[in-house]
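yo

u said u wanted the structure for the complex thing, so here. seqs first:
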Amino acid sequence: MEFQIDQILKKNKLSLTEGRKKVLELFLKADYALVHAEIEKALYNIIDRVTVYRTLQSFLKKGLIHLIPTTDNSIKYAFTNQDVRHQQFQENHVHFFCSNCNKTFCLDNVTFPPIKLPDGFKEQFQELIITGTCDNCK
Amino acid sequence: MEFQIDQILKKNKLSLTEGRKKVLELFLKADYALVHAEIEKALYNIIDRVTVYRTLQSFLKKGLIHLIPTTDNSIKYAFTNQDVRHQQFQENHVHFFCSNCNKTFCLDNVTFPPIKLPDGFKEQFQELIITGTCDNCK
DNA sequence: GTAACTGCAAAATATTTGCATCCTT
DNA sequence: AAGGATGCAAATATTTTGCAGTTAC
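structre next:
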């Protein structure tokens, strides 16, 4: 995995610092979206809270991770699947929020048809958020 | 409108206090979702910041307003259309986020077909967030 | 009259910024 | 060597809590 991590950072023109490697490792190991607090906690006394904020910003800017809409005043970040990156990322995207374990998953393989909008509204992209119970919690 | 405000509060078993009337009035006048900061600002030196927090909580609990997922670490509250309340509220719901004016609208009349999920995932409800430019900003 | 609501103060959290130092390239 | 990244401290911003006083019914 270390090799993969370095590759991803290089490909995105991000310098290979310890903090970035650690944060990226967390995203690769998790199959669900992360919030700042989880990352901060996981890397407690390894990298600083502020560095986590800045690392997330730089990952976001590169498109390495993306934001997932939430209703709970948190920001959820999900690793952007490198394969779908140029295909679906800017288009329709499906996320699943498990109301039991509170985890959010990207459903990269699920698609949905575009929806017709009222006059005057012009769409850029659509994202679907499905709430329910996930595979682990069923 | 005053009559309407009182009616809505009564119907929802909420006492008719000045603060609640003012907050509800804002929701009725706006055709888009509000965030705490907007409400606080609009009612500056009329009702306290803390009361706004508590009023939003009580409206939420009654279903008078509902949450809209956002990616920007804010909580957006939209007035729940009384007509669709028992029909669509717990089911599929469509919101439109205008990337120009940053306002979010409920599209009560737009519907979409349910999406098939991978095995193990069980859905409760789905909500679609469409980003683009709204009627006012076109 | 009583329970619920409100305002104020303060505590607790969360996020951002500045700056000196360290690390990657 | 140089620019960018980091840690620490501190400034801001946001949200929650406690409590005494007030209001709705």
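The helical segments of chain B are 2-11, 18-29, 36-42, 49-62. The domain at 2-132 of chain B is CATH 1.10.10.10 (Arc Repressor Mutant, subunit A).
cya
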